[in-house]
Specification:
The chain is α/β, with parallel strands linked by helices. The chain is 31% helix and 21% strand. Helix 2 (65-82) packs across helix 3. Bound molecules: iron/sulfur cluster.
């Protein structure tokens, strides 16, 4: 099963890291690690950025929306090209957040919301999970295996 994954979840030092992946066997998936912000032309490390409604600004007050949207669209193009239908993304990121993001005030407060890339994927009918929803992903994988076993060789 093909799975696009936030590159930082696999330890690529593009921004965040996650321990949550220990709950699934990654060898069950054909993984495609990718960072939409790097695709958008941002360096690593880079100043923290947060969403302010449709806009994304960095901690210096610069509007960095263009790079975020560019990276999200480049990542979507990649998924289409590779025929990847689902993504496991890093919660709280202004690109990859699935259920929560920082509130745009750079004070560490989180709100319900989605990252730019996540929003684009959902608008286009892709299945998206965060590292905090690994159980759902696992169930989906088990279901697929069950169906394959039932249909036989
Ligand atoms: S954009 Fe996504 S993949 Fe890149 S560092 Fe942020 S959370 Fe990780």
């Amino acid at each position: 099963m093909k799975l696009l994954i936030s590159a930082c979840l696999l330890g690529t030092p593009c921004r965040y890291n996650a321990e949550a992946l220990k709950k699934i066997n990654l060898y069950d998936f054909e993984l495609y690690p990718l960072c939409p912000e790097i695709l958008g032309g941002f360096p690593t490390p880079r100043p923290p950025s947060e969403r302010q409604d449709k806009k994304v600004v960095n901690i210096r007050g610069e509007d960095v929306s263009e790079g975020f949207y560019l990276g999200a669209h480049a990542a979507l193009d990649f998924m289409r090209k590779e025929n990847i239908q689902m993504a496991l993304l890093k919660e709280n990121s202004p690109s990859c957040g699935v259920r929560s993001i920082y509130d745009g005030s750079f004070t560490g407060r989180k709100i319900k919301g989605r990252g730019i890339f996540t929003e684009l994927l959902l608008e286009n009918g892709y299945r998206v999970y965060s590292e905090n929803q690994i159980e759902i992903l696992k169930e989906e994988l088990d279901e697929k295996k069950k169906k394959e076993n039932q249909s036989g060789p």
